[in-house]
Design goal:
transmembrane, membrane, alpha+beta, Pilin-like, single chain, 3-stranded antiparallel beta sheet
């Protein structure tokens, strides 16, 4: 009896083992990829909240330093924040003033706690607390 030793190609078991190993590695890489995308989206949203808060604080500071009376308020649904004549409105941001502010603001010192949160993901928030003072 003659035994053939011609082993060109792969067996079915080798092919299945290669497919299984490839699938395991691909699923691990796929998971890391989508986890990093999700993390990146959250960080971009947080950065946008921080930039919006900085703009609001700069506007309040400008109004406070000028020594005029002004009003800081939000609407009922916390989607619009008004500082003097400036209106801050962004469809993806909710604004909330955490402390009570006497309006119109006429005092020399103002302490404000402001919270901005994402409308899409309320778990992503940015809070800022600051005090404004003027000499006049």
């Amino acid at each position: 009896m003659k035994i053939l030793r011609d082993e060109h190609g792969v067996t079915l078991m080798e092919l299945l083992a290669a497919i299984i190993i490839f699938t395991i590695f691909a699923s691990i890489i796929w998971g890391f990829f989508f986890q990093s995308l999700k993390f990146n989206d959250a960080e971009v949203t947080k950065q946008q909240l921080q930039q919006e808060a900085n703009l609001i604080i700069a506007s309040i500071q400008e109004a406070h330093i000028k020594g005029q009376s002004y009003i800081i308020q939000t609407n009922d649904s916390n989607t619009v924040l008004t500082v003097k004549d400036l209106v801050f409105e962004h469809p993806q941001i909710k604004y909330e003033i955490l402390n009570s502010i006497q309006t119109p603001v006429i005092s020399k010192t103002l302490e404000i706690k402001l919270k901005l949160s994402s409308a899409d993901n309320p778990a992503i928030t940015y809070e800022i607390q600051t005090t404004f003072s003027r000499i006049k």
